[in-house]
Amino acid sequence: MSNPIAELIELLTQENISTTAINQAISSMPPDDVALALESIPVAQRRFVWDSIKQTNRLDILVEMRGESRLLLLKELNEFEIAELFSDVDAEDLLEIADSLPDPMIDIALQKMDAKQRDYYRQGVTYEEDEVGRWVDHELLVAAQSIRVSEAMRLFRRTTASYSNTMYLVNRTGRWVGCVHLKTLLNAQPHEHVSELMEEDFPFLEAQTDVIKAADLLEKSEVSALPVLDENHLLVGRFHAGHALEARRLEQEAVQMSNTGLDEDSDLFSPVRRSATSRGLWLGINLLTAFMASAFIGLFEATLEQVVALAVLMPIVASMGGIAGSQTLTLIVRGLALGQITRANLVSLLKKELQVGGLNGIVWSLSIGAVVSWWFQSPLLGLVIALAIVINILMAALSGVIIPVVLDKLKIDPALSGSVILTTVTDIAGYIAFLGLGTLLLL
Amino acid sequence: MSNPIAELIELLTQENISTTAINQAISSMPPDDVALALESIPVAQRRFVWDSIKQTNRLDILVEMRGESRLLLLKELNEFEIAELFSDVDAEDLLEIADSLPDPMIDIALQKMDAKQRDYYRQGVTYEEDEVGRWVDHELLVAAQSIRVSEAMRLFRRTTASYSNTMYLVNRTGRWVGCVHLKTLLNAQPHEHVSELMEEDFPFLEAQTDVIKAADLLEKSEVSALPVLDENHLLVGRFHAGHALEARRLEQEAVQMSNTGLDEDSDLFSPVRRSATSRGLWLGINLLTAFMASAFIGLFEATLEQVVALAVLMPIVASMGGIAGSQTLTLIVRGLALGQITRANLVSLLKKELQVGGLNGIVWSLSIGAVVSWWFQSPLLGLVIALAIVINILMAALSGVIIPVVLDKLKIDPALSGSVILTTVTDIAGYIAFLGLGTLLLL
Asked: Where would I find the CBS domain in this sequence (chains A, B) (predicted)?
């Protein structure tokens, strides 16, 4: 295989692999790739690999691991090993892993830190995981707005940080007042004051801004890092393109996973009982909705006994509604996320979705009706399923618009829970329409 | 409402709104926000708003619009208006909108361009939409590797491009040989040759690299832009953090939309017939799978006639399998995307998923069995559903691992088609297990 992670996994899962061979393979790989490979081998084998990794590389790899995988590994280590591991952790790394560390471990790590890093950490933890204040780094160039260009250039020459081509200027009380571009300084005279070259309208982020919103703002601003300020306009740090890219990557993963009730921190080899528990909750919610649907089918037991073909066909009606409704729901959820849905266009949207649903409902119900008439040699049964499909697809369009809008008003994320509610509605509506019409027309 | 886009939508949907009022509202907003608002009003009203927008702002707004919305608008314009619109389009903008333009319109735009931009365009279109060669910009600083620091600094002072803190160096044949950081130049003497300061191992991208992979590489490299090279190591352009953030944002949208068979270019107010056609295909695919499932239920008509409770309960068995299978599928799809799944760990993974499935299957089937025994006063029916659920959840775990791996081997994206195939399998397996056991044990 040409993929280096796959090659490392193959190597690590071999029996009797030597410490030297592991170290050699790992030495040339970036820590995030090693972390991925470590997460790809069964939990029981990880400890041996971990012990083979050089002490100096361990922390970087640990930081790159997923929450659950990290916790599984840390549980295996004793207090001495953990203290050694955290001997030179910085605030940024500790913030990234804090959520999967028990408090005593965090205390050990904090004791090892210098005062400045400890302050950064304490400031960082005051923000939520999805607030940009938690995502900052502190390698920013800060200077008093009173300095001259020559002094500013001296600072620029010395910095070793990535994404650094702006200097953050503060006033006497330490409040951020604006930024100056390196390029501006290059075109200025050494004795000029930077305050005269400063961009006062340079964009900034409030520390409590959602990190995905912050990534949007960074993208729009076309700079590689933005200052992050607290409510007093004091600098919390900066949010750079690398972190913004990471935030979007993790967000996409989280959305994908949460669609099936999974946690994005899940380990590929999470212990069986742990996995079963976390997934079981979602199965339970689904079970409740399935029982609800069954209860409605139960109302029509007498009909089903007489026309068993209804039982054969009822999943078709439910599933067509579910698919059509999910399409509308997805479109509306995207519109809500982009701020496109307002009172002003909601009615037009609903009308349009009902029209689309109506058209598709008619087209497909004619085909389904024809197939069913022929299959069961009963034009009346064909009519029943055709009508039920039209009704359910219209119901799906209506629910697909209304459910996410209502959830949004209730401050519940429609991307997470919209789909479960919608399919429950379309299942039940489908069964009632189909079995109800069957009772009326076929008995 | 505090959201500026929502406010603009409210304004634009008012009756008798004046051109002046529209222009005033739009003037302070970035083009992407105006584009979003324009996409949020019914198609019939857009032409009037468009005509109110100043000629100089129109192209920027058009570029920011979604493919379908853009096409709907362009269809309304006459040839003269289109020629005017494209009077100063550049290669980058034209590449972004080319897919929604008919060829004659592209020809008009190409005629308006200068020779350099036309070359950029022609090079860009040789790459696919998802290849990074199509995503480059050309505002890069290029110089011969033979120049001195003083000359390089002069070039740096003059550039107005964002994300510019590296210079791209080429040899006599025009091939890229490496980069030099602005910071390195700042710390060098004016008479030094840049070739001695150059980083030869500066990371670069091949133009045919997938743009999402390119964004990963940019994130890892911790620089704000990477050079993009063709197969001869000639510079195609550069890929910067702004484009990488955009690529990830659009990718996430596309994945979300495609889960329900929608195109990410879809307009919120797409014309009814157009919408119905594009969504109808997905409904049709789903209909086929639903008919397949019904055909299997049909095999058990005789059983259903005698034990109608089976008809009432069968959706529960199918849906529990679907949910459990989707959880496994999602985990495996993520693992495949990250390169974590190899021959070496596939068997361990399958074993673990079967164990999780088995455990959850037993726990939930006991509860379901108990509820059903009580509901229908039939312990035997409870036993039938409990067994069927265990079987279907195990089947789901097996399919959840095997389906994406096989699709991946066949070069079919498992994130797109895995879910439809999986739920078809779990539906059919669920019906067969439940109705089959019912036939054996209850008749």
From this structure: 198-255
